[in-house]
Amino acid sequence: MKLRYMFDYAVPAPTLFCDSGAEPDARLQPSMDKIRIRGGRPLRGTLPISGAKNATLPLMAAALLTDETLTLANVPHLADTATMASLLAQHGVSVGIDGATGGGHTGRVMSLKADRIVSTTAPYDLVRKMRASVLVLGPLVAREGQARVSLPGGCSIGTRPVDLHLKGLERLGARVELTNGYIEATAPGGLTGAEVVFPFVSVGATENLMMAACLAKGETTLVNAAREPEIVDLAQCLAAMGAEIEGAGTDRIRIRGRDRLGGAEHTVIPDRIETGTYMMAVAITDGDVELLGARLDLVAAVADALAPAGVTVRQTERGLHVRRTNGRLTGIDVMTEPYPGFPTDLQAQLMALMTTAGGAAMITETIFENRFMHVPELMRMGANINVHQATALVRGVPKLTGAPVMATDLRASVSLVLAGLAAEGETIVNRVYHLDRGYERVEEKLAACGAEMERIRDS
Ligand code: EPZ
């Protein structure tokens, strides 16, 4: 048995969607749980922040680069990490998860050992459920000289091509073909280091190329690389595995390839998107909460944006203390950008926050072409929002009212939870499986801070 779970509560089956919202597989139907919220209660107390989903997924893929054990601590307990574990298991990776000895606040320890890769194919059924599956491409070609990975399709938030991943691998000498919906990449003699210039910033392409370059001959330079903290976390883990990497966190990353990498132990960084989400949950309910384990340096742009809106965020010894500065929130103008700018993964939550702020807010989405699916649902709760192309104009209303709502991706779903926390009356958030992909125990964490919120299990 390759996959060994020791979860202390049921995690949705590792069977979910593209990382923003394809429909569930009929054969592997995830739970249709709902969340019921009675709004109007301020959040108070402490709330633990989990390890970062978007750091964990590439870190798990990095296990394919070595035949030794990679041990990750502070791994969040999510449907997406379970999906990645399933994918790696079918490549031949032994995956062990220990819930008892997790690092950080809630994380588990995961050990991954890819001593023998039994398949270099990432099948359609898994890739279409989670786009981050494409992160196995670079490591597999680099180590095995070949990989066949289903081409991820479009997503509810945009078309999301992977052309930069493929062009980058070609620069390292791989031959890449698209056949029957699969990416077929081969490099029988191994990859060779090269300069890869990205025309625009891509987190996933930077991660795939960084991992591939670790086992390429010679030096690779990634120009216009993504600077996200998840990239730095991956670089630190790869360095612990024996890779030679400089410049992660800047737009120029240099990697000197090695013949082999070894095992390592690494602790996943706290989730900056979960942190930002709960910062806004505290603000929207006029609460006062300490986010345990959160780091201000990871959410500096968010804290800077929220300050003029009337939200105070302060680093404490244990995490971040969040509260409103005084009285009502004020509308602010925000544009999403690659790190260190304001993250697209917090745009929906910010919009929920702005629905009841004084005055107007202008929110512009620059990363994904279709990331406003939360707008019509927020409007059903009484929000006043006008969208023109990539910009949403939010005019603050005195109050939201509860409603049954549903969203088609992770961050849109959580924005409806935030709106529900502030709304008068009852909100039912449907399709909780989206939340389970990226928010660990969302209803437990918020209820522990006083939210009247519960999961209604699908019987
Ligand atoms: C990562 O996706 C995150 N996912 C996303 O989080 C996040 O929204 C996104 O980065 C931007 O920050 C993970 O880390 C697992 P990109 P990724 O490549 O790597 C276009 C969430 O909610 N593009 O930086 O797929 C692309 O279409 C998720 O947790 C190409 O055109 O994002 C997009 O418009 C959703 N060609 C832009 O670049 C390519 O080859 C940025 O995408 C690659 C990307």
Rg from alpha-carbon coordinates: 21 Å
What is the β-strand count? 25
Q: Helix proportion of residues, in percent?
A: 25-40%
Helix/strand/pairing class, anyone?
alpha/beta
Shape: elongated
Strand order of the largest sheet: 1-5-6-4-15
Q: How widely separated are the two ends? A: 30 Å
Number of helices: 14
Mean pLDDT, nearest integer?
92
- Low-pLDDT stretches are 1-29
Major sheet size, sense and barrel closure = 5 strands, mixed
The unique ligands bound to this protein are:
ligand EPZ
State which percent range the strand residues make up: 15-25%
Descriptors:
459 residues, alpha/beta, 5-stranded mixed β-sheet, 4-stranded mixed β-sheet, 14 helices, 25 strands, 28% helix, 25% strand, elongated, binds ligand EPZ
Short overview:
The chain is of the alpha/beta class. 28% of the residues lie in helices and 25% in strands. The radius of gyration is 21 Å and the shape is elongated.
Task: Describe the model.
By secondary structure, the chain is α/β, with parallel strands linked by helices. The protein is 28% helix and 25% strand. The strands form 6 sheets. It has a 5-stranded mixed β-sheet, covered by helices on one side. Helix 12 (410-422) links the parallel strand 23 and strand 24 (426-430). The longest helix is centred in the first third of the chain and has 13 residues, at 79-91. The radius of gyration is 21 Å and the shape is elongated. It binds ligand EPZ. Ligand EPZ is lined by residues 19-20, 54, 57, 131-132, 158, 160-165, 202-205, 344-345, 367-368, 410-411, 438. Ligand EPZ binds next to helix 1, helix 5, helix 6 and helix 12.
